[in-house]
Amino acid sequence: MVTELQLNNEKLQIQISEIIARSSKESMSSPKKPIKVTKEVAKTSNSKKLKNTSILAFWHTLANGEIKILTGDEHQFRRTIKVLEKQKVEYHSYQLKTEKKFLVPQANNKDIYDIKNLYYHIIKVEPPRKNKEVPQCKNCQIFGHTQNYCFKTPKCVKFSEGHTSLNCPKSKKSKAKCANCGEGHTANWKGCITYKNALEKTHPKKTMAVQRI
Question: What is the C-alpha to C-alpha distance for residues 83 and 62, in angstroms, rounded to an integer?
Fold first, then answer.
């Protein structure tokens, strides 16, 4: 967890502010991906000083207490990550578009859909299907991001304690505790209220308007 010994909030803001100031003078691409910092950062004694800095437009406190940093471009994003890592701040981020492998055919190779035969087999090329699941981090067990971009304290999927699931020292017969809701089940159970809320938020159900006669 983030403590005042781990993070000098005021110093962190100055460093990130300098990054944004330098980046605003450069011409860059714009993969605007947020960085979410643990809510403990907001509890530090210097957190109120954020309101008096130029970082305010890029630093937002979410309803769950986490802090979301919005960067304007890829260089700014990477520089901010370096500052957080140097200060040993727990956070998670997301994969940049520039790092993703595009599975959807682009304008110059859409003729792939016209392929009907391959090595004497009849085939049909279709666009990727949307995943209706909600990603869950296998490191901290929180929904909405993956372990590849998570730098938070690990939590066991079964016992909600501060160790990885792979290196869990507890007996398999011990009572489970969800790291998200605190109930007596594993954190990856699809019946968990936290999962259901995350699913509804990511894929809200469409409501049909009923015309009254």
Answer: 21
- Which residue in the block uniquely carries the two structure tokens 């100055």? 14
d(CA 139, CA 166): 10
For residue 200, give the amino acid letter: E
Given the DSSP bridges, would you call strands 91-92 and 121-122 parallel, antiparallel or unpaired? Answer: unpaired
d(CA 11, CA 1): 18
Residues 6+ apart with CB under 8 A from 133: 199
Cα 206 to the chain's mean position, in Å? 25
Q: Are 67 and 37 in contact (CB under 8 A)?
A: yes
What are the backbone dihedrals phi and psi of residue 56, each rounded to the nearest 5 degrees, phi first?
-50, -40
Global pTM exceeds 0.85: no
Question: Which tokens is 81 given?
Answer: 């990550």
User: What is the tens place of the pLDDT at every residue in 133-190?
Assistant: 899 999 999 999 999 999 999 999 999 999 999 999 999 889 999 999 999 999 999 9
Mention every residue, 6+ apart, whose C-beta is less than 8 A from residue 6: 87, 88, 89
CA 78/CA 71 separation, integer angstroms:
9
Q: How large is the C-alpha radius of gyration of the chain? A: 22
